[in-house]
Description:
CATH architecture of the largest domain in chain A: 3-Layer(aba) Sandwich
Oligomer: homodimer
Number of strands of chain A: 14
Low-confidence stretches of chain A: none
Strand content of chain A: 15-25%
Largest interface: A-B, 52 and 53 residues
CATH superfamily of the largest domain in chain A: Type I PLP-dependent aspartate aminotransferase-like (Major domain)
CATH class of the largest domain in chain A: Alpha Beta
Amino acid sequence: MKKIRLFTPGPCTVPEEALLEMARPFEHHRTAWFKEVIKDCTEKLQKIFLTTNEVLIITGSGTAAMEGAIVGCHPAGSKALVCENGKFSERWGLICDQYGIANMRCKVEWGKPIDPAVVADHIAKDKSITSVIVVHSETSTATASDLEAIGKICRQHNKLLLADCITSAGALPLRTDDWGVDVLITGSQKALMLPPGLGFAAVSPRAWEVIEANKAQHSFYVNYNKARKSAKQSDTPYTPAHLLVRGLRVTLDLLLNEGLENVWKRVAGMAAATRAAASAMNVQLFSQRPADSVTAFNVPAPVVEKELRKMLREKFGIHFAGGQDAIEGKIVRMSHMGFIDSIDTLGAIAAFEHSLHKLGHNFTLGAGVAAAQKVFVERGM
Amino acid sequence: MKKIRLFTPGPCTVPEEALLEMARPFEHHRTAWFKEVIKDCTEKLQKIFLTTNEVLIITGSGTAAMEGAIVGCHPAGSKALVCENGKFSERWGLICDQYGIANMRCKVEWGKPIDPAVVADHIAKDKSITSVIVVHSETSTATASDLEAIGKICRQHNKLLLADCITSAGALPLRTDDWGVDVLITGSQKALMLPPGLGFAAVSPRAWEVIEANKAQHSFYVNYNKARKSAKQSDTPYTPAHLLVRGLRVTLDLLLNEGLENVWKRVAGMAAATRAAASAMNVQLFSQRPADSVTAFNVPAPVVEKELRKMLREKFGIHFAGGQDAIEGKIVRMSHMGFIDSIDTLGAIAAFEHSLHKLGHNFTLGAGVAAAQKVFVERGM
């Protein structure tokens, strides 16, 4: 018997209901039916993002959506403050470079969050900065930054705020309008519980002003002005991956029926239980400000990361992610997003505990699941 | 009862086997398993395209794949001859314009093919032309151009040939290597029988030389050099729509098990039967060189196009496409691609005949299906 249990921070477990919806009789996308699906998904995404901003559905990964946002929001003469504390924030700086967009990197050691005070400081010192690019939840290091505080600073100083919410939207508390996020980006394969293939953007009127007036070189394919024009008709400029959009309607209904704040609580509970288990198993967290959507563990000596993930995968069907770049081989990452609950999480912790024990890590066996269980009982989950 | 029968020239009917494959337990994409899927699909795509060229699998529509090709193949100092005879060839000119790529439009009336002699003439007159962009099968007008002859001219004069084979690859005879096609582009939702969401490119060593050396502005997301680097490892630079790639393996197996030349024959047979039916029903074809992958009919007076498509859709569940831009309301289009055969096609012709009759077109009722039936019997299908 082989069960697949995805605890990778994307793709995450997709509900069978969504998979089966996508296997239903296959229709055309330029139809009244599909416009209705787009309209419905758009409204539901606004509810998930807590925004009245216009939402774009883009066929491509989150990177495609981010490229469109960065290019659109940076006409000649603009300058981005790129808050860099991991693999994904690094990528957004590379996009700026590739398009010749002036940018300053606010570099922070991997595992640390972005300090809002440092953002404020940069903005105060360099008057030419017009925008701030920040990753809400840095998936590569499992670190959450205080997007609300950063949003406040951006609003005070009238800077555009572009936020990569790829592993936060639908998982962590995120109030787009209240926090003043001008462009929120996310992808389908994280908390939205879908397979990969769609990117999303929620764009504020402030950002649209800049994007509309921007005469700089855009990508032809990922072009927010064109996407907006179509979105107003509940349509897309080019052929969309409409199968995924159909699945999206199912997963958005699941999330909204659970209730957004309940989803946040479920995710936070699974993360808290996981951190309690780590502590009980004498495993250190990599992040100095752990995100609730994903946990990164330092792999304790003498355990070898590759063997740990292999055992999890082959013995238990549990998929953790490894580290990237400089921290490859040093950490493993476990997701709290997707179609999973406390029971699934306890199972993953049990497998993690079992594997650590087998691979020579020294701790009180059973302490991990017991600690997690306590948290779940306390939280009534 | 409601059956959906897609005769739109994309998306086309997807085999249940592929839909169900995509509903199977959901795995991660950065795994040995998925690398094997990519490798397998790449090799099978090479067999469909009849090429040894490297193949890229791009998450996005065919337009994304085309953008990457056009940008990559046109460094500073290059000039494209854009052969324009319909909606899609028009789009490729727009991409050139947007990136400031010098280009000459070789414009031909919609419905006519590209004349290879005219291409030769342009190349002879304008020595600065470095590439030719042509659409093999112009979906908007259902017109096939002689790609083999155009390829020969490009090889004689050492020009790069970029071919949009979006509604030809896997449907019409197409011999990438023999014909000297430098960049072949196609999408998932046509003859490859998948839902939309993937674009494909097969790129020749000649084209790679140009793309590799090109320092011009590329899109970050659709970047052939990056895609190539990953493809060499059976991987992708960003998160791929891996569910679709998994479905792709199923549809490629179906096509290759049928045999590529048999697929071409099946498509050609359905097209020939459809044209015979049109003639028998006194319906004119729009194209002066009809493609076998899709047929465009002039809507005969007094039939109203919208009513015709509505009746087809609502009474018979049959989806035809309309016309675009200047020919909107004047034509309807019927696909011969996808998971369909002679029996399906005869059903569509019957519904078309029935609807034309009901909507006031004057012809001998039954002549359409009888003419189609004769063709199928002659061809043993």
